[in-house]
Specification:
This protein has 238 residues and is of the alpha/beta class. It contains 7 helices and 6 strands. α5 crosses α6 and α6 packs parallel to α7.
């Protein structure tokens, strides 16, 4: 009798255990949902805080009043202000040569010189043009080849302030042995926090922040530095 009662109790106990587990399943599911929600909220807060810090950093970037002389100068296309700033540095003797990276294949040397109003002799002797790069990653790849070809140890990088953090990340990824000095070009002053009230500025900063995060993730991956020669149109007499 005792054995049968024990067996019945085990059977009932097992059934009760299964029932208890079955009853508590929704509770565990809801617990997981809450964890996921809290995790998602935490991620959103982290991204928002990161964006604020990113935008604040960009807004405080200023164009240097003085730059140390480097071996070369690299400017990433995207606006005439960048080209003008880079050519001014070249005229001032801040670098031996200038690489203009990411030039439209249909834009020749003469057109670039006329657009920038540059001295023909300076443009002919010391300016190289990259028609291959289509984006910032391509800019870094072609720049790395150019730097290696000339055996430069220190270069000045010219681009807009909002584009500088991502550009530096890509350059450092492919130029670990070279010193890259930033020369941010500022078209609109945002150091008063006005980017918060300017939809266009906010959109540009948000887009650049997303691209910066992607570049940051890419920077932790193994890197193969391009070994082939750059596809550069070297300076030549027109």
């Amino acid at each position: 009798m005792d054995a049968r009662e024990s067996t019945e109790r085990q059977q009932v106990g097992g059934w009760d255990g299964e029932k208890s587990t079955h009853v508590s399943s929704p509770s565990r599911i809801w617990q997981r949902v809450r964890i996921a929600l809290w995790g998602g909220a935490g991620l959103v807060v982290a991204l928002a805080v990161g964006f604020g810090a990113f935008a604040e950093h960009i807004s405080l970037l200023t164009q240097p009043t003085e730059m140390r002389t480097a071996d070369g100068i690299i400017v990433l296309t995207g606006g005439q202000s960048r080209l003008s700033a880079a050519l001014d540095l070249l005229k001032a003797g801040k670098g031996k040569r200038l690489l203009i990276s990411g030039v439209n294949p249909h834009a020749g040397r003469r057109a670039l010189r006329e657009v920038t109003g540059s001295d023909k002799q300076l443009f002919t002797c010391c300016v190289d043009i990259d028609h291959v790069a289509l984006d910032t990653v391509g800019n870094a790849e072609q720049s790395a080849k150019w730097v290696a070809a000339h055996d430069y140890g220190r270069v000045i990088l010219v681009t807009n302030n909002y584009h500088m953090p991502r550009s530096l990340l890509e350059m450092h990824r492919l130029l670990p042995q070279a010193s890259v000095e930033p020369y941010p070009v500022v078209n609109s002053k945002l150091d008063d926090g006005s980017w918060l009230t300017k939809p266009d500025a906010l959109r540009v900063l948000a887009t650049e922040y997303v691209k910066y995060l992607a570049a940051l993730a890419r920077s932790v991956l193994p890197t193969n530095v391009p070994a082939e020669q750059p596809a550069i149109v070297s300076a030549a007499i027109e």
